[in-house]
Design goal:
The complex is a heterodimer. By secondary structure, chain A is an all-alpha fold. Helix content of chain A is 82%, strand content 0%. Chain A has one domain. Helix content of chain B is 77%, strand content 0%. In chain B, α3 packs across α7, α5 runs antiparallel to α6 and α5 packs across α7. The chains are: A mainly alpha, B mainly alpha.
Chain lengths: 85, 141
């Protein structure tokens, strides 16, 4: 389960970076930095512009990976790292 | 373009105003944030940070959501200990909230006011730069 969680995290990170690049290109540096700080904004922007930017597949994969991560975290109780404090 | 002009152009970018202008973005962002905060109040985190899960390194925004929840609950010191930018982002959240709920005419006024303030003072970009600097300090020190 830990390996699956790690792979889900890695895939999620790749999707995040791909969408972030699009965000920087389309919305400029300001909102791009906001996207780095707040991955949730990148995620929402990605879904709103998924069709226009042709990133539907990336967003779908990212969403599946997030859900998978949450399921593994809560249902199986697997956590790779101590919660950051 | 000289370095000074480039710096000014960089600082004068409107960020909050862009969020206010695109009402859909603001509304969806607020709804998602409310859902996440609602669950966070009960100790359930629905958002898994991709950087943290993959690398075990906190991203610049890690802890910000929990700090904002603490700030909203009135636990100011605990919020500042967790993330110093929680009050700033709560204030930004209020502006985005107003942008999402105000009628069109008032929203246009708010958009113009925020845009002018951001472009004249460069406050948002300065805050964002400080935010990244704070992450670096928190991470390496």
């Amino acid at each position: 389960m830990e390996a699956i969680l790690y792979l889900a995290g890695l895939g999620s990170l790749i999707c995040f970076i791909l969408v972030l690049i699009k965000l920087f290109k389309k919305q400029g540096v300001g909102l791009g930095i906001l996207g780095i700080i707040c991955a949730l904004y990148t995620f929402i922007w990605g879904w709103i512009h998924a069709k226009k930017q042709g990133i539907q597949n990336i967003m779908l994969i990212w969403t599946i990976l997030i859900v998978l991560g949450i399921v593994i975290n809560y249902v199986f109780g697997v956590n790779l790292w101590e919660q950051y404090r | 373009m000289t370095a000074m002009q480039y710096m000014l152009t960089f600082l004068q970018q409107p960020v909050l105003a862009m969020l206010i202008r695109e009402r859909n973005h603001a509304a969806v962002l607020l709804i998602a944030a409310c859902i996440l905060f609602g669950f966070a109040l009960f100790g359930v985190s629905l958002w898994v940070c991709p950087v943290w899960t993959c690398a075990g390194i906190p991203c610049p925004g890690c802890g910000l959501g929990r700090a904002m929840v603490l700030f909203i609950r009135g636990e100011v010191i605990a919020a500042l200990e967790l993330h110093a930018f929680a009050p700033v982002f709560c204030a930004g959240g209020v502006v985005v909230f107003l942008g999402a709920v105000l009628p069109a005419r008032q929203r246009e006024g708010l958009y113009r006011a925020v845009k002018t303030a951001e472009m004249k003072s460069g406050i948002t970009m300065i805050v964002l730069m400080l935010f990244l600097l704070y992450w670096g300090v928190r991470f390496f020190v």
